[in-house]
Amino acid sequence: MNELEEIKNRLDIVDVISGYIKLDKAGTNYRACCPFHNEKTASLMVSPAKQIWHCFGCSKGGDIFEFVKEIEGIDFGDALKILANKAGVELKGYNKSNTNQERTERQKTGEVLEQAAKFFEYYLNNSKGGESAKEYLIKRGFDEELIKDWRVGYAPNSFEQLSKFLENRGYNKVYIEKAGLAFLKTNGNLCDRFRSRIIFPFVNINSEIIGFTGRILGKEENVAKYLNTPATLLYDKSKALFGIDKAKVEIRKEDKCILVEGNVDCIMAHKAGTKNVVAVSGTALTELHLKILKRYTSNLIFSFDMDSAGAKATERAIDLAREMGFNVSVLDLKEEKDPADVILKQGKEKWIGIVNSAEKIMDFYFRKAFLDKNIEKVDDKKKIIEELLPQIKKIDNSIEQSFFIQKLADELMVREEDIRKEFSKVRLERREGETETKKKKDTLSQKEKLERQFLKLYLIKKIDVKDFIYLFSEKYKTILEKLEKEEDSSRALEGMEDNNLLSEIFLGAETEREILEANEISVEEEIENCLINLKKIFEEKEKMDLSLRIKNEKNPLETEKLIEEYLSLLKKSYGKEN
Ligand SMILES: [Zn+2]
User: Which one of 50, 307, 446, 468 is at 20 to 30 Å from 60 when CA atoms are compared?
Assistant: First the structure.
């Protein structure tokens, strides 16, 4: 029996799923409100007999792996780890995309960081400096449980205590440095990076420590208030989201995520009962952060500094999120500086009230633009228009755009066509790094990406394609057939119109070969993966067509037959997954 079957045998799908959402018994099956789409009636079914689940609202479904992947927003490898752990099955040699050396390096770095976290936790509870650190934390609203949960620690005021501790445990200096915990001095000794600071660990979605943030205690001068782990094998600040491991399931359930700027804000928000909160500073928010969040929700609530100091960075962050298709709202903290202050001084009810009255971003921009202006004055009218038109331009939907143009015209009591005239002149600056080719690539469908990927692999290794040529669309079918007939690949595609595609495939094949070699992945394995995914897409399409026919079929007997057919398709595709 392989590891996958072993895990499936040991775990019951009802137990796994009810760890995340509430299941109700319905005959031999279970039923729940689907966490993957918005609904009020329960259309997600779980079958203990077949050990599969399926949502009849959004057609997501599969086995336990598929469920954990979806709800945790992780890839198959991570879902495997989580479920193996739950089942008590030891995994051998997974993670095949990394080379052995990198794997050991990651593991070692992770171990060093874990030891360091324990060290910091110990010093928070057992040192003079730790005592004042704890006093500070308690003043800001922490309690013992919270400190333990979030593994808050303290780095003693020493240049070598941590390094010595780690070296005594047998860790090589190089790994201690590589983990971002110390610098190697010219004399060959280590110097600790974090000194006399409160330490907040950064963890990944699996709650493994990847780095630290250190905050100074008092108001020392000439020292940075916050110090972070530098870029390491595990820590990448453009991806790390503070609190994501504790927030992810709640973000999915609530279908929204609140972004705050400080670690303490994040922890306090969790304590106050809003657990769909992560922290990232406005200046640091990247496309990668947003991509990670997109796996969980399309609704973001920013609790960032909207006043002059941080306003520019915040606006950039909000623009980025809007461009990526998020619905953005903002919180108005009124006179308080940050969420932690609101919760500490005014209580959690106040905070929850603020969260519940989050303002949609366009409403916020409108309110702000009209603030302190007199719409009787032409100059003020012009200012308001100048401020709002670029914001309206950023809306991705023309109906919505129209709505706000009209609203603006109404509120300013000017003619809509005049606003439209001005609107047509507005040009948005492109942010750097955003190019046309990138946009073009993103518009390729998942299927076409896979078809291209397959062609590249096919150039590396020709295989017999007749059994699965039906998976490809006409365009790629033709190319494959040409390549099959002619030995010399570049001659085979002579005269093809889509030059862009050809260069991508030929050049891409070279890079692909290098990547596969470097990672010791066989072409055959990769080809198989590619075909499996194409097959999935094909079957999805089959299912969609069938369910459309079911909807349109008037004859009940025929409908019955079609449903039967549909169910066997379902069973077939679930059976094959993973
Ligand atoms: Zn659903």
Answer: 468
CA of 541 to the centre of ligand 1 (A): 18
Q: Which two tokens stand for residue 416?
A: 């809509």
Could you read off the pLDDT of 30-66 as tens digits, one per residue? 888 888 877 777 888 888 887 888 887 777 888 899 8
Residue 464 Cα to ligand 1 midpoint, Å, equals 38
Using the mean position of ligand 1's atoms as its centre, give its distance from the Cα of residue 110 in Å.
36
Per the CB < 8 A criterion, the answer to whether 419 and 401 are in contact is no
CA 66 / ligand 1 centre spacing (Å): 13
3 state DSSP class of 547: helix
Give the residue ranges of DSSP H helices in 142-236: 144-149, 161-168, 173-178
Beta-carbon count within 10 A of 520 CB: 11
Strand partners, 301: 258, 329
Span from the CA of 460 to the centroid of ligand 1 (angstroms): 40
Instruction: Calculate how far, in angstroms, residue 568's C-alpha sits from the geometric centre of ligand 1.
Output: 20
Q: How many angstroms does the Cα of residue 34 sit away from the middle of ligand 1?
A: 5
> What is the reported pLDDT for 143?
94
Q: How far is the CA of 39 from the centre of ligand 1 (A)?
A: 8
Residue-wise pLDDT tens digits, 179-231: 999 998 888 899 999 999 999 999 987 788 999 999 998 766 677 788 899 88
Choice between 155 and 460, residue whose per-residue pLDDT is larger? 155
Band (440; pLDDT cuts 50, 70, 90): very low
Distance from the alpha carbon of residue 58 to the mean position of ligand 1, in angstroms: 4
- Judge whether residue 464 has pLDDT over 60: yes
pLDDT at residue 434 above 60? no
Residue 574 Cα to ligand 1 midpoint, Å, equals 16
Mean pLDDT of all residues belonging to the chain: 85
- Ligand 1 centre distance from Cα of residue 46 (Å): 12
> Do residues 306 and 280 lie in contact, with contact meaning Cβ atoms separated by under 8 Å?
no
Alpha carbon of 42 to ligand 1 centroid (Å): 9
Is residue 270 a contact partner of residue 260, using CB atoms and an 8 Å limit? no
Contacts from 171-175 at CB under 8 Å and sequence distance 24+? 171/108, 171/111, 171/112, 171/115, 175/108, 175/109, 175/112
**In whole angstroms, what separates CA 558 from the centre of its chain?**
43
Check: CB of residue 123 under 8 Å from CB of residue 129: yes
**Confidence (pTM):** 0.64
> Which residue would you say has higher pLDDT here, 13 or 565?
13
Closest CA to 229 of 264, 204, 201, 208: 201
Q: Is the pLDDT of residue 93 over 70?
A: no
Provide the residues around ligand 1 (an ion) whose CB is within 5 A. Answer: 34, 36-37, 55, 57-58
- Cα 39 to Cα 79, 166, 256, 507, 563: the distances in Å are 25, 51, 15, 46, 23
Ligand 1 centroid–CA 359 distance in Å is: 27
45: CA distance to ligand 1 center in Å?
Answer: 10
90 CA distance to ligand 1 middle (Å): 32
Measured in Å, residue 248 CA sits from the centre of ligand 1 at 18
